[in-house]
Amino acid sequence: MAAPVKLDHRSTGYSLERAYWLALASALAYKDEAAVEAQAREWGFETVRHHETRFTPPFPLQDTQAYTMASHDMIVTAFRGTEPQQIKDWLSDATTPPRRGPADIGYVHYGFGEALESIWPDVKNTHAELRTNGQTVWFTGHSLGGALAMLAGARMYLEDPRLAADGVYTYGQPRTCDSTLAKAYNKGFRNRMYRFVNNNDIVPQMPPAPAYSHVEALRYIDSHGKVRDAMPVVGGLLDRAAGLTADPLAPASDGVRDHFMHSYLTALEKNLT
């Protein structure tokens, strides 16, 4: 799918066009290396690096995957997500304690912390190698990838504020950290973090609060596919109910259906047109 707008490597700040394009970049993380490199070149990125590692605790053997693409003006790292059932297994695992957060601030879900730790040195070194022109830096990801993108932004900022990313856009991100880290993140990433949630997407509702919290800057996609800057409590409940009843033959599947990356892309594209 081609973006309906030309990608501006020099622009900053929030826009629906950027949200849509970074959603495409998140979707591309599910593709193989050749597909990533071909698309990156079409988008105007001269250099691509692939990141992949394996880790085990406390889940069955998993891959953590991401890619970084760089141009003269912009660097983007997109983290790969996982299937809804797999991430539900991750989020329901309560056998391990949480992990200390970046710069020892608060704590994060153990699985997410370990997954990022396994790949972060390579991502960090790649940014140090490729950021030779003061390029803007962006992290993005869907599902598990969204959690890793948020934590990557947190690590970069909290461990060295001079390296703060210019933007973090996530799609279907689960709750990732406690309220202490969320507050520190919200302060550092005001007007730079945007967390998209599609109606009844089940993954952002896990792990349960208050043990885990969401970062701010919600962009809620309602049952009609419209992107809203917030989700009113009463109106949001009614809208979620509308989404559940949209498919009378399979209302329980709505939370999984709304989580798929193509559902986010479809909604964002609709808002652009």
From TrEMBL:
It comes from the Bacteria. The keyword Hydrolase applies. Its EC number is 3.1.1.-. Residues 76-209 form the Fungal lipase-type domain. Keywords: Hydrolase. It holds the Pfam family Lipase_3. One of its GO terms (molecular function) is hydrolase activity. PANTHER family: ALPHA/BETA-HYDROLASES SUPERFAMILY PROTEIN, FUNGAL LIPASE-LIKE DOMAIN-CONTAINING PROTEIN. This is Lipase family protein. It comes from Streptomyces neyagawaensis.
